[in-house]
Design a protein that fits this description.
mainly alpha, 2 helices
Length: 67
C-alpha cells in the first residue's frame, strides 16, 4: 500500500514538473519571437554581421595566439 502511495505521489510530481517545463519553454519561445519581430530587417542584418565578424576574429586570435 505504501509503495502505491509513493508511486502515485511520484507520478503527480513528475506531471507537475513536466507541465511547468512545457509552460516555460512556450513562454521563452513567445518572448524570443516577440523580440525578433520588434527588430527591423536592417537591425537583424547588422547584428548578424557583427556576430559573424566577432566570432571570426576570436577564432583567428585563438589560432594565432594559441590560447
Amino acid at each position: 500500500m505504501r509503495v502505491l502511495f509513493l508511486l502515485g505521489v511520484s507520478l503527480m510530481l513528475l506531471g507537475i514538473t513536466l507541465a511547468i517545463q512545457d509552460k516555460m519553454e512556450r513562454e521563452y519561445e513567445r518572448g524570443y519571437q516577440d523580440g525578433m519581430h520588434s527588430l527591423s530587417t536592417r537591425q537583424v542584418d547588422n547584428l548578424c554581421i557583427k556576430w559573424w565578424f566577432q566570432s571570426n576574429l576570436e577564432a583567428a586570435r585563438k589560432r594565432a595566439c594559441g590560447k
